[in-house]
Amino acid sequence: MISVCFRFDDPSATSDHNLEKKIFDIFSSLGFSLTVAVIPYKKSKTGEITEISKENVTHLIDAEQSGVIDVALHGHSHLRRGRDSNGAPSEFFGIPMPEQACLIKEGTALTSSVFSREILGFVPPWNSYDQTTANVLNELDFKYVSASWENFNSGKLVALPRTCTMRNALRVLKGSVRFQELSPIIIVVFHPDEFEEFIFPPDPEDAPPFTNLNKLKEVLTFIHEQPDMELSTIEDIANSANHGPSPWTPHQLTYLPWRFKTLVPYNMLFRSSQFKTFSVMLRRGLIKVFKMK
Asked: pLDDT tens for residues 83-98?
């Protein structure tokens, strides 16, 4: 079975709630659920901070209670507090442990209170975090972190990284059928400002919109029509990982000859234990894998 998760980042007290409702309606119409990474404290361009409340995110609360969305914590306030090792912005990378712990605890407490439920998933802004972040999340009993491919091990915390975006989701989904026996996991990450229907003007440093609601429905309809695909939340995948082997990433095959590496799909995870033998079979040339275009 091929498992697909959609991770929708950036909903907050001041985000485009009308667009978010339309997105949730599309998922609901097909009987699907998605993971929503909520920003608990959102800072405006004028410096004003607005926190989520039971009054200003009613659409998120309704969607969560009806089972359409599963809520994850999207950092604290999505502020650039530093930069990662590549110079990209980060809210957590390189920040001292006490400060990271304070930010995560405060964000968790507010989000848990608003949704009247335990928050078990963490999505760092800009998909950036470090070993300290992972240690804090493990201490706070988070089940999973969903970010970039970089993985920091810490206790039972399961790393379930983004594997693709709406730009290439349909191509990745179609290509995953070739690797069905390895039980692929595909995590599609998308944001409100990537949609043509987004109500706010784009920031100067942001790319222009490249998708729309019709394209989202097209991708979801494709999944709905595939007998060997299922749509899950990231928490569902994390729960299954806690009762079995953690998903394997293609980046764990660093020892493979480069010619074989070019045949490995780098936009999905693999849940099957056969992934270990997959590398051996590649080496011996016992299976033929088509390179994804």
From this structure: 887 888 999 999 999 9
